[in-house]
UniProtKB/TrEMBL annotation:
Signal peptide: none annotated. This is Agmatine deiminase family protein. GO terms for biological process: putrescine biosynthetic process. SUPFAM superfamilies: Pentein. It comes from the Bacteria. PANTHER family: AGMATINE DEIMINASE-RELATED (PTHR31377:SF0).
Amino acid sequence: MTDSNLRLPAEWEPQAAVLIAWPHAGTDWAERLDAVESTYVALAAAVTRFQALIIVVADGALQQHVVSKLQDAGADLARIRFVQLPYDDTWLRDSGPITLRDGNRFQLTDFRFTGWGGKFGAEQDDALIRGLVDAGVFGSAVHKRIDWALEGGGIESDGHGTILTTWRCLVQRHPEQSREEMSAILRDSLHAERVLWLDYGYLEGDDTDAHIDTLARFAPGDRIVFQACSDAADVHHDELQRMGDELAALRTVDGKPYTLHPLPWAEPVIDEGRRLAASYANYLIVNGAVLVPAYGDAVDDHAARVIGEAHPGRTVVQVPCRPLIWQNGSLHCITMQLPAGLI
């Protein structure tokens, strides 16, 4: 494979499958397993309406349990493949492969996963891509390990050589490196032309250090969907206003401003005195559809409309995600799309 033609596809390009790992009693979901499984069941049923789904499970007993759950929910089991591997937790956006492509050739880019800067144990998650490769999931794709910490939720690609990311996250992972040094690493490892940085934007209850996929997302036609905050009394208001100003100042490669789609702000979700990060920006694009988080909030439908407008021609499916934010992530965080032709 000649590296010069590799690129990181946009999420809205054709996909082969979505990859997830199922929660179980040995993960951090144990306390609220029933609630979070309801979200996973809804997600699996939604994905299999449109394309294939690969589910990583810890063992055969869990696989049988999941099959039973999905049968009851009417998921299309013919579109599901199970792979048995060990894992620490289920945030596959961050431990799964970042797949570059050159036509029908693929590179599984395997960055070092540190449990979001050493916050959590991650040894098994860091070995997940190698396990999937050894299980034959990805055929003849090249597996390239890169000894530099990066999570898939920390980057957005427009499919044409532009990467969007946040300074707050990457400076936490690599405090010894300058922005210029990190930009060069991102351009080289992701075969990108340019890197756009946001200095503002965060969510309380988010332990990823401001992953871009909780804040701002590329959409087709030079659009950006972003999480806004309309409540001037909220602690996030000024920061997200500044982020909105940054996004308005960004320019496409042609020198034009992006078309911005601000998302509504959900009422604060407080759990045992802790505020949870309910971001609508954490949605998942699949073939012919966009799966949108719903939190049981009055603005759920408004958020779904905004996302649908930014992704015209796709069916909008709301997935109940309130159980996910207990562990500080949402829909996009638990999934990783795999480009068409990879499987």
